[in-house]
Amino acid sequence: MMKQRECCTRFARGILFFYGDNKMKYFILTNNPMAAEEFGDTHDVRFVDGRLIDVLIRARDLINEGAVLLSHPLYGSVKPNETPFRSVLLQQGKSQDGELPPADTESVRLIGNAVSAFEKFIDKKEVTDPKLLEDFMVVDLSLLKSAVESADR
User: Fold this and answer.
1) pLDDT digit string (tens) for 108-130?
2) Is residue 110 within 8 Å of residue 14, measured between CB atoms?
3) Are 145 and 105 in contact (CB under 8 A)?
4) For the chain, what are the domain ranges?
């Protein structure tokens, strides 16, 4: 029987994937109802009822509690002011003796930069057109599917 191994691979733009037991253990953090519906039965989905900044802030809080960012929070070429939806993959940190694990420095840097980027465009008018909102959900879902496919390999 082949020995199972732990490894970490760093991809372009700071995307991190951690593998253990040949299967990655991660969860999806999203404010996209379409993504929650698509993956809700097969993956651990944590829905954020709020705006894109609420997803980023929740991700930042989880990272400070030891979670590791697995997908770039500003993935694709979609700027935070151009879409109201965001989905990210995170891996829950493992605690030692009931204490929080240390925060992953690369994850802290990436999520901090994403929050700062969002704040630069905070005055942007919110999208309310239902057709445009659906289009933004589809774009986010498409990018998420690609990240999930990579993570599930």
Assistant:
1) 999 999 999 888 876 667 788 99
2) yes
3) no
4) 7-152
Phi/psi at 56 (nearest 5 deg)? -65, -40
Check: CB of residue 35 under 8 Å from CB of residue 144: yes
**Which residues make beta-bridge pairs with 91?**
68
Tokens 């029987």 belong to 1
User: Phi and psi (nearest 5°) for 148?
Assistant: -65, -40
Only one residue has tokens 């465009």, namely 121
CB 56 within 8 A of CB 73: yes
Q: What is the DSSP string of 43-111?
A: S-EEE--S-HHHHHHHHHHHHHTT-EE-S-TT-TT--TTS-S--EEEEEPPPPBTTBPPPPPHHHHHHH
pLDDT computed for residue 31 by the predictor? 98
**Exposure of 111 in the CB half-sphere (CA atoms within 13 A):** 30
Other beta carbons within 10 Å of 92: 15
